[in-house]
């Protein structure tokens, strides 16, 4: 039984590693849906006042979407790789292709949450009804035999999203709400269709333009994930041991627990890495080859001792080296 459970956990781990982007985007979308529902219940209250409805409705849709987009850009590690590339190697040494691909990846991932927010807002229709109610043409309403009264039409229509207005105009209120929700949901479904088509086209373009086979591309993705995990774990241990050595040098001793003592004994750290080495393994990187041998990362390239990993700027660093 224990072996069966361990095997299932191993399978789930491999599945999640291979589908990390898809699952991450799915979790972001689900979190956005939950946040949108909470916002609608707790925070959304249409002012039901002319000129204010339009501003409030658009703000309720656009501002959270913009905030989610900026948060997605900030939390993406590729953003800071791109910044580091421009900082350490200057923009003139950055070719357009890698920067465009990386920027597209950053914007694509950051757009998952705001697009989800906008779609859910449009499908619910509350913000759209609030924003557009005062702009409905009164002459187009047919709920009453005598038509909608033209006097104070804008003020009356603006109060419809709150269920207010003269009792004899309740039929018009239902018609306005039904019409605006139809428009809102139509825009929501159209947005879903446009996004689905764009994702499909981007995936097709990515696989058509890739110089790698499907298996090698999967291997490269696994390598990047493993390198990142091992690098973070090793950096944490290295920094901890280095800090312990420096504290010992200052005080003459260092208070260590059992795990720290084992780390220091097992991984002796003499010094820290110089800044040029950090700069060499930081920044934008696409797939490259050297005499037919793949270079899967900046760290891999640095280990091979190839040109362009020192302190001097490398003018061909961003050039396509794929054979």
Automatic annotation (TrEMBL):
Listed GO MF terms: monoatomic cation channel activity
Coiled coil: none
The keyword RNA-binding is assigned to this record: no
Main location: membrane
Any single GO BP term: ATP export
A GO cellular component entry from the record: plasma membrane
Pfam families recorded: Ca_hom_mod
Membrane topology: Multi-pass membrane protein
Spans traversing the lipid bilayer: 21-44, 56-75, 96-117, 186-205
Subcellular location: Membrane
Highest taxon of the lineage: Eukaryota
Keywords, ordered alphabetically: Ion channel, Ion transport, Membrane, Transmembrane, Transmembrane helix, Transport
Family: Belongs to the CALHM family.
Name by which UniProt lists this protein: Calcium homeostasis modulator family member 2
């Amino acid at each position: 039984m224990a072996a069966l459970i361990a095997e299932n956990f191993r399978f789930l781990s491999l599945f999640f590693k291979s589908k990390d982007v898809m699952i991450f985007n799915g979790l972001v979308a689900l979190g956005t849906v939950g946040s949108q529902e909470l916002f609608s219940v707790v925070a959304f209250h249409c002012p039901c006042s002319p000129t204010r409805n339009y501003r409030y409705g658009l703000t309720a849709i656009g501002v959270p979407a913009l905030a989610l987009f900026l948060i997605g850009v900030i939390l993406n590690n590729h953003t800071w790789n791109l910044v580091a590339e421009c900082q350490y190697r200057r923009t003139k040494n950055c070719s357009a292709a890698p920067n465009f691909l990386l920027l597209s990846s950053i914007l694509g991932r950051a757009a998952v949450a705001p697009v989800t927010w906008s779609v859910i807002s449009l499908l619910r229709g509350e913000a759209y009804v609030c924003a557009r109610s005062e702009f409905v043409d009164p002459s187009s309403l047919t709920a009453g035999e005598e038509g909608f009264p033209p006097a104070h039409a804008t003020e009356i229509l603006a109060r419809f999203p709150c269920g207010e207005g003269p009792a004899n105009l309740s039929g018009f209120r239902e018609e306005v709400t039904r019409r605006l929700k139809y428009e809102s949901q139509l825009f929501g479904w159209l947005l879903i269709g446009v996004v689905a088509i764009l994702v499909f086209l981007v995936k097709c373009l990515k696989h058509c333009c890739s110089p790698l086979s499907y298996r090698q591309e999967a291997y490269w993705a696994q390598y990047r994930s493993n390198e990142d995990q091992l690098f973070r774990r090793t950096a944490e241990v290295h920094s901890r041991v280095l800090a312990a050595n420096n504290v010992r040098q200052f005080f003459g001793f260092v208070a260590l627990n059992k795990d720290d003592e084992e780390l220091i004994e097992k991984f002796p750290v003499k010094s820290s890495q110089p800044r040029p080495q950090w700069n060499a393994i930081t920044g934008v990187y696409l797939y490259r080859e050297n005499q037919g041998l793949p270079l899967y990362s900046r760290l891999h390239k640095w280990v091979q001792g190839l040109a362009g990993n020192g302190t001097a700027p490398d003018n061909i660093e961003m050039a396509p080296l794929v054979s």
